[in-house]
Amino acid sequence: MDAGPTNPSLTNDLHTQPMEIQMGPSHPSTHGTVKITLKLDGERILDSEVEVGYLHRGFEKECESGEWYQAIPYTDRLNYASPMINNVGYCLAAEKLFGVEAPPRAQYLRTIASELSRMADHFTCIGASALELAALTPFLYCVQAREQIYDLHESLCGARVTTNYVRIGGLQSDLQPGFAELCREKVAAALTLFGDVDELLTKNPIFRERMEGTGTLPADALIAYGVTGPLLRAAGVGFDVRRAEPYLVYDRLDFEVPVGSRGDNYDRYLVRFEELRQSARIIEQALRDLPDGPVDLDDPRFRWPAKGKVFNRMEELIDQFKLVTEGMRPPAGEVYQAVEGANGELGFYLVSNGTGKPWKCRCRAPSFSNTQALRDMIQGALLADVVPTFDMVNMIGGECDR
Amino acid sequence: MSDGEQAPSAAPAAEPAVLARLRVRFPDAIVGTHAYRGDATAEITPAALLDVCTFLRDDPGLRFDFLADVTAVDYLGSMPRFELVYHLRSIVQGHRVRVKTRVSEESPRVASVTSVWRGANWLERETYDMYGIVFEGHPDLRRIYLYEEFQGYPLRKDYPKEKRQPLVTVRDVAPEQGERTVAREQQRYGRWPD
Amino acid sequence: MASRVVTVERPPRLRAVDTMGPLLIVRGLLVTARHFFRNLFAFMRGRRTIATILYPEEKMAWSPAMRGMPVLVQMENGKERCVACGLCEWACPVDCITIYPAETADEIERYPEIFDIDMSRCMFCGFCEEACPEEAIVMSQRVAIATTEWRGSLWHKRDLLVPVHELDPRLRYIRRGYDRPDVPTPAQTAERLEKR
Fold first, then answer.
1. ipTM score of complex
2. Would the CB atoms of C14 and A174 count as touching at under 8 Å?
3. Residues B188, B111 share a domain
4. Taking the C-alpha atoms of A248, A250, A253 and A256 in order, what is their torsion angle to the nearest 10 degrees?
5. Residues 6 or more apart from A376 whose CB is under 8 A from it?
6. CATH number of the domain within which B131 lies
7. C1, C5, C17: which to substitute to probe chain A, counting the most A Cβ within 10 Å?
8. Cβ(B169)–Cβ(B186) under 8 Å?
């Protein structure tokens, strides 16, 4: 790196050496527990080392020691900013393994839930980024917008963050009456608030100066690092699992995949921004097309029977006891199912040996691969560029460290 | 386990194109293939891993430029105990493949694919951290989630879930610059009961 | 697929006039002032629009779906509805429930002698409620489980029992789903449950 002092006559006799500083694990301007050890020459970054693992909780080990359904609450805690998508990803993988499919109504509701969570995640990312670039107000508006989404989470499943909503072969519960109106109202309110964030941030020179041209990596380097999601799309690659390998009902919905032109942090911000609007469009279409019918699979091998039957009939009561204590038994085999998480491709690789417990439950976390590319993104940049780059990488500790 | 469920490999007509191509190119390295639930899977010999991966990335008809995941599965009790699993996707051509290879418990070593995909770096470190599989040729094979003093490999099936590890205390940032503080701290505060 | 990919529009490059202070400040202030006055007028009219809740004085209005801490349903005769079958214990992913069953000469002959929930482990996932074949453990709207010492987070049966009328909203919520083919109506189910 040619980052030496500009005037040699002044510094010839001066003894200088690169300075090593630690950023994190709990640094006020990084919204995630990660430690970045920086080697600096003045303000310029000569080298860096990104260290993760501060939030490692043994997700896979816990999943392996429980029944198949007992892993679902743990998936909430992967990317806690978009819990529904993790639920959906795990349950889709399990359904692929079991060879079953949830009823259409459940598919639509899962789509709505996923997109709500994606909105919540992008609100968090953009709000926190603004906060860390010293703009407090957009953060407050974003959090208020996110609260609207969490209200909808609560109406869907009864929890705001730790949702535990999707089940293998169905959903925890059907909609409450009046959800569609509530959803339209809350999403519109969230987007209105986000319009204010747009006004405050998008054309703000300070924000643009810090975002534009920083954190750039060419698309092929990003792919080589396994980076997906808004980061890759900002570099011009239109890879979106929802489009490339449609799951749920995404092939029936009309939405666009926004891509950027330069791949810098500003493009990443704009891509996330546009994805929010597209998510709102998807929710609107899914609400419009939402079919009637059951949300749960009527198959006592995989899905707990309906409660009303459990109270009144012997067979279903036996099924309930067997399913809870022994768990559902998939055929032996292995599957990999990818869904589009808020930060990229979220994949679950499940291995079954035919018993009620997963033999292996692996989560391919987008944040992990994305964080890995951080070192190259900030190489040779200024110290101040670490913050916007890290913000747009949007490393979520729970997902990265599992 | 997965062996029992593999589709009969004597049905190459229904085999996905990726696997047919691999079989032509590496007739000796392919141990078995299956496409359970539509996931094209090739099991190969560990010696051929690097060649197969390079071929998968560079072949113009395959172009697997995106390494989604590296992980291992511990089949405790079956003979080569560990199975390395690589999930690949071609961003350009839009297909996926899973490459698997078995390594034994006695010498859990396999070639690193960091030279093929840069993103394998952390994924292999994680697999090393959790399963103790050594990736030869990896530039920086250290534990990634756990701390250096951690004993054992937690995702192995013979590692008990409830096992407690001794607590470690303050560690010098640059250990070569002086004696490690762990011993000193332990002297001061006592050891965590094992 | 290619046609569905759109490139996001980048606003034009900054001009010198854009970076000049006063204009910027005014533009930002217009947004924040709009919020300020809207919230102020709404407050004066008695309809608050800010999201903040003044917690101990005000409580959040939960949705009926809200999953708070799990509690035991106490029937009108003062006894628990639980028959100590142990399904919630099985279903709990974090093993926070402990049940010791016992028998009586009552009509419902089994009951839990000990029913403990370790609230420091409970993650409010609701599997116990879903697994329960008796509607005996339900997720209430209680969330205040903080204690000053860790032993306080071990809740025993006498702390967990809640009279059935207090849990009415939740019971009505989870009984929504019973209106399915071949299933008695909620009224019938309730009547039958009451008869026991």
1. 0.84
2. no
3. no
4. 160
5. A217, A221, A225
6. 3.30.460.80
7. C5
8. yes
Residue B187 and residue B127 share a domain: no
**Is C61 an 8 Å CB contact of chain A?**
no
What DSSP element (H or E) covers A270? helix A265-289
Asked if the structure places residue B37 within a domain, the reply is yes
Between CA A136 and CA B104 the distance in angstroms is 55
Q: Which domain holds residue B175?
A: 164-194
Do A203 and C192 lie within an 8 Å CB cutoff?
A: no
Residue A81: other Cβ atoms inside 10 A: 24
Assess A308–C contact: CB distance below 8 Å, yes or no: yes
Tokens of A6: 């500009």
Domains and CATH numbers, chain A: 67-99+102-296+330-401 (1.10.645.10), 300-327 (no CATH)
C194 in reach of chain A (CB within 8 A): no
Residues on chain A touching B123 (C-beta within 8 angstroms): 226, 368-369
Query: B116 with B185, same domain?
Result: no
Do residues B29 and B113 share a domain? Answer: yes
pLDDT tens-digit series, residues B65-120 = 888 889 999 888 888 889 999 999 888 888 888 999 999 888 888 988 888 888 88
How does pLDDT run across C112-135, given as a tens digit for each residue?
888 888 888 888 888 888 888 888
Same domain as B71, residue B140: yes
Domains of chain C: 14-52 (no CATH), 70-195 (3.30.70.3270)
pLDDT in tens, A133-168: 888 888 989 988 998 899 899 888 888 888 889 988
Q: Which two tokens stand for residue A150?
A: 């969490």
CA dihedral A207, A211, A212, A213 (to 10 degrees): 150
How far apart are the CA of C91 and the nearest CA of chain A, in angstroms? 6
Is C194's pLDDT higher than 80?
no
Q: Which residues of B touch A339 (CB under 8 A)?
A: none
**Residues B133, B110 within the same domain:** yes
The answer to whether residue B156 is domain-embedded is no
pLDDT digits (tens, 9 = 90+) for A188-237: 989 888 888 888 888 788 888 888 888 888 888 888 898 998 998 888 88
Minimal Cβ distance to C18: which of A205, A270, A309 = A205
Position B13 in a domain:
yes
C66 in contact with chain A, both atoms CB, cutoff 8 A: yes
